Amino acid sequence: MDILLLVGRILLSLLFLGSGVNHLAQPDGVVGYSAFREAPVPRPMVQLTGLWLLAAGLSVALGVWGDLGSLMLLLFLLATAFRVHRFWRDADPAIRATETAMFMKNIALSGAVLITFALFRASEAGWTLTGPLLR
After folding, report:
1. Residue 92 backbone dihedrals phi, psi, to 5 degrees
2. Among 40, 42, 38, 70, which Cα is nearest to 55's?
């Protein structure tokens, strides 16, 4: 069972690690989208969230204070869902549909990282490099 939990954590983390790398290595597209969605201070926020995603993704994948990493991902997902993917403000049906899908994806992933948080807290997350930070 430990191997399944480890593989699951790594697979979940790949999304956030890839996004973090994209935020830092190719920021212009993310900055442009963030500006279009009226996110505050797009360029610094893209850089900050890129580092945040890398740190949190590595934390969950490697099991280094994975409970903290899970909460970091939860915060990112909820903030992005409610600040960036505000589909209810979009009049264009195509944009509204895309933003609805992105909002729902973030909400669903929030559930996944909450489960991951609970597993780390219960020391049931499979092989890890450290125990949970938050007791």
Report:
1. -70, 125
2. 70
Packing angle, helices 93-121 and 2-25, rounded to 10: 130
d(CA 95, CA 131): 42
**Could you give the CA distance from residue 87 to residue 101 in angstroms, rounded to a whole number?**
9
Tens-place pLDDT, residues 81-101: 999 999 999 999 999 999 999
Q: What is the pLDDT of residue 33?
A: 96
Within 13 Å of residue 105, how many CA atoms lie on the same side as its CB?
A: 13
Contact 68, 133 (CB under 8 A): yes
Look up residue 52 and give its two tokens: 């945040």
Residue among 135, 1, 119 at smallest CA distance from 63: 119
Rg (CA), the chain: 16
